[in-house]
Every structure is written in C-alpha cells, then in structure tokens.
Amino acid sequence: MKISFPHLGYCSIPLRSLFADLGHEVIVPPPITRKTISLGTRHGPEFACYPLKLGLGNFIEALELGADTLVMGGGIGPCRFGYYAQVQRDILQSLGYKFKMLVVEPPLGHARQVLAVARELKGGKSWLDLMRAGQLALAKLRACDELHRASLKQRPRVQDKPAFSRLYQQTLEELDAAPGIRAVNIVRDKALAAMEAMPLLDRIPPKVALVGEVYLIAEPAANLRIEEKLGNMGVEVCRHVWISEWLRVNIFLDFLRLHRQEKAEKLARPYLQCFVGGHGQHSVGETRKAIRDGFDGVIHVYPFTCTPEIVARGIMQKLAAQERMPLACFSMDEHSGEAGFQTRLEAFVDILGHRVKRVKEMIELG
Ligand code: SF4
C-alpha cells in the first residue's frame, strides 16, 4: 500500500515509523502551506471545521503524490469529528481520486472495526510485528512530546532563540530517522541535555495556559505557530493536550474499560456538567486550573464554528473576568492573517507584563 494520513504536528514521525515498519510505502503529505489551505477550502464545505479542510488539503496533496490508501481517525459525537472521514472520502471520490480510506474508530464499542483495520494495515506481517512497530512508534511519539514539553519551558528562557529552533528541528529529524527504541532514547536524552546547557536570560518568564481544540493546539500551521511565537516573546506556554497522553486515556484505558476521571473534567463540572464534544469541557476545567495554579494568563485557540469551544468560551470569559485573569481567545480559519495575529499576541503579552509587574509590587508591599 502507498499509505498517507493528515498532518497533526509532529505525529507524522511516529506514523511514518509505524507504517514503514509494516512494509508500506509511506507518503507523508507536504508541510501545510497556503496551497494546502486553498485546496481544502476550495473543495470542502464552507462551514466545515477548519481541521477538516486542512486534512482534505493534505489528502489531495498526498493523492497527487501517488498515495492509494488514506488513514483517518474516526469518532463518536456529539461534535462533527466523527463525520470527517466520510465527508472527506465523498469529496475526494467526487473529484475523481481512486483510493481506499481506512478509518480508525475509537476502540470502545468498535473493537471489531479496529481489528479489521489493524489486520489490513499489518498486511503480510505477524501480530508480533505489528506490536513491535507500535512500540517503536509510541516511543517516538513520547520522545516528541517530551522534547516539545521541554522546548516550551526552555525557549522563553534561552538567549539564542534561532539556535534553539535549529536544535529542536534537528532533533525531530533525528527522531524520524531513529531505527529503534534505544536510538530514540539516545536522541531524546542528547537533545534535552543540549537544551539545558544553553545560556539563559536572567528573568523568570510569565506563564500562560494554552487551551482549546486539540488540532488547533497541536498543529503549528493551523495555530500560526503560536507556541513558538510566544516562546520567542519570552512567554512560557503550558499546553493541556499531549497526543501520547490522549492516546493512553482515550484508546488504551477506554479499550480496557478502566475507570478514569480527569481533573479538568471535574473542575469544569460546576460550570459545564456534561460532555459537549471535543475539548470544550477541558477548556473550562483548564482555565479554572490555571487560575488556581497562579498562571499569568490563558490563551484559548479553536476553529471558527467549533461549537464545543464556543460553548466553553462564554464560561471562560466569565471566569476570567471574575478572577481578573487575562484571557485571549483566537478563533482561527483560512482567513486568519499572520500580521493581525502577531499584533494581538504582542498586545496580550504586554498585558501579561503589566500584570506580572503589578503582582510583584503587591507582594513587595506585603
Ligand atoms: S471539536 Fe470543534 S473543530 Fe473539532 S470536530 Fe468538533 S466542532 Fe469541529
């Protein structure tokens, strides 16, 4: 099979590893550019979620490069993610592309479909081979998450930001090429040590919580590289979604039917009792957590027309106003412009600076 999938941050690294180890030719779609966005918006429904359009653009570019199998995640309500694969498949077929789409549904309640997709993906390989390939892919995903977490902490602190970006990028390439778990660990440890060793600025950065819809948080092309921009402006970002953690909770624990109750859901409950789809409930819970933990601000990113996050935003604005917590909400789509976004971010960072100064003065005055 000539297999492809949509981009989601650095997830192409573990996915390439997984499919290549199973003997497939992997066609990673080109990085998301204006061309990808315009392909997705030209052929996608106007009011579809932005992630659907970007994924559609990825698929078109991959099919043009010769992919014949597309792998896509599935889902169950209440929001629209569960329909992405079917809508994208119908659009691509109407454009005349010939391909097979494999939809990986959440395992709980869909064990048979998941097994059927796994059997198709493993092809002539054994189940043991599939397990080994999965272990290496997971190790790469965890290493990417660890590296990224460390980068969010260190970037605002280091003096030489361009050198930091080069180190980060080079490490991702090395992780992509790492042939086994041992090599992955070596690359990760070397990069973390190099980050630690970089000369630091003499200041403590303000800390913001980045909350919102998972795709917008994880895909830099969709969020206009918000984490990198904030880091370069000297702001430490704490994000609440990590793909390896998301897989652990939503795939493994759900599959094993193990009870789980996430803190953010509990914290959101007095304001939003039910699951509204996506990460809406988490956004509210994480905002309360940020207020409780003394963060300096909250940034909310979500696709234009994303209902769960629109529900959450109203509650978050009320909470932030009550607690005098700076909150910036960015609704993104194909019309989001880099210049206006940068200006709004800079204004927000100014507000953070004033707040940090005021809090410091209040502490000094006792
Ligand atoms: S969470 Fe928002 S963006 Fe994602 S599928 Fe649901 S409505 Fe669309």
What do these coordinates show?
This protein is of the alpha/beta class and about 375 residues long. The chain has three domains: about 1-125, Rossmann fold (3-Layer(aba) Sandwich); about 125-155 and about 155-205; about 205-365, Rossmann fold (3-Layer(aba) Sandwich), CATH 3.40.50. The chain has helices at about 10-20, 35-45, 50-65, 85-95, 110-120, 125-155, 160-175, 180-195, 215-220, 225-230, 245-255, 265-270, 280-290, 305-325, 340-365; strands spanning about 1-5, 25, 70-75, 100-105, 205-210, 235-240, 295-305, 325-330. The strands form two sheets. A four-stranded parallel sheet has the order 2-1-3-4, with helices on both faces. A four-stranded parallel sheet has the order 6-5-7-8, sandwiched between helices. The longest helix has 28 residues, at about 125-155. The termini are far apart. The model has no long low-confidence stretch (mean pLDDT about 95). It binds iron/sulfur cluster.
